[in-house]
């Protein structure tokens, strides 16, 4: 489909980048604001002019190619504006950065992230893990696709003394290890989408302190 068709199709369900908002864990928007967008009371913010967004969009295809070169044990595939829906809950959908297949035939998600660390507190979010809203995004992708694993490739930029430094990290999440978290997310997404279809404003969710 075209980009315009893809943008319109996003009103028909919950995308992976929106899952953290459903849980009240998004640093960008609330579950209530997301509900207003899905019920067309509000329009999605246009972030296309952000230099961080522009960089991420331009870097993504190169990072996918680098992943394929560095990890030849996976077959890597990408299709623009492809929407994959959960067969039982079609309002749960995902457009993946890439699809993977290992040598045993297991299918997986490839998620690409580019970020720039601006203060020491942000490093803590990457200390042996990925930031919570990215983790929820990956859980949603596993829900939508039914795939057995996901790999998040993160290119992290930071500056020391004015010099730009870049580090790249890879995180693997196996579906079998996160089934309880997926079940919790599924429950919240079903409840949220019922609020959309019933035109009923959800109670605001606040992130834990």
E-strand count = 7
Tell me what portion of residues adopts beta-strand conformation: 15-25%
Based on helices, strands and strand pairing, what is the structural class?
alpha+beta
Largest sheet: 5 strands, mixed
Shape: globular
Euclidean distance between termini CA atoms: 41 Å
The residue-averaged pLDDT reads 94
Number of helical segments with 4 or more residues = 7
Estimated helix fraction? 25-40%
Strand line-up of the largest beta sheet = 1-4-5-6-7
Give the SSE string.
Answer: HHHHEEEEEHHEEH
Instruction: Outline the low-pLDDT stretches.
Output: none
Radius of gyration: 17 Å
Task: Describe the protein's architecture and organization.
The chain is α+β, with helices and mostly antiparallel strands and 209 residues long. Helices cover 37% and strands 22% of the residues. Strands 1-4-5-6-7 form a five-stranded mixed sheet. A two-stranded antiparallel ribbon has the order 2-3. The model has no long low-confidence stretch (mean pLDDT 94).
Please outline what is shown here.
With 209 residues, the protein is an alpha+beta fold. The protein has 7 helices and 7 strands; from the N terminus they run ααααβββββααββα. The chain has a 5-stranded mixed β-sheet. It has a two-stranded antiparallel ribbon with strand order 2-3.
In terms of topology, how is this protein built?
Blueprint lengths: L2 H7 L9 H4 L8 H8 L12 H20 L4 E3 L6 E2 L7 E2 L3 E4 L5 E10 L3 H5 L7 H14 L3 E12 L2 E12 L4 H19 L12
Parallel strand pairs: 5-6
Antiparallel strand pairs: 1-4, 2-3, 4-5, 6-7
Helix pairs in contact: 6-7
């Amino acid at each position: 489909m075209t980009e315009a068709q893809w943008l319109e199709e996003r009103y028909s369900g919950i995308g992976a980048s929106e899952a953290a908002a459903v849980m009240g864990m998004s640093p960008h928007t609330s579950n209530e604001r997301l509900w207003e967008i899905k019920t067309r009371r509000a329009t999605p913010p246009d972030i296309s002019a952000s230099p961080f967004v522009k960089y991420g969009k331009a870097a993504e295809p190169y990072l996918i190619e680098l992943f394929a070169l560095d990890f030849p044990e996976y077959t890597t595939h990408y299709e623009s504006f492809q929407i994959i829906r959960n067969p039982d809950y079609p309002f749960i959908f995902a457009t993946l950065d890439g699809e993977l297949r290992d040598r045993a035939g297991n299918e997986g998600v490839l998620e690409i992230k580019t970020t720039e660390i601006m203060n020491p507190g942000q490093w803590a979010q990457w200390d042996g893990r990925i930031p919570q809203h990215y983790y929820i995004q990956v859980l949603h992708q596993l829900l939508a696709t039914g795939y057995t694993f996901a790999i998040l490739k993160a290119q992290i930029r930071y500056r020391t003394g004015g010099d730009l430094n870049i580090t790249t990290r890879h995180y693997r999440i196996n579906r079998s290890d996160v089934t309880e978290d997926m079940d919790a997310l599924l429950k919240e997404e079903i409840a949220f989408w019922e609020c959309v279809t019933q035109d009923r404003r959800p109670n605001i969710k606040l992130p834990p302190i």
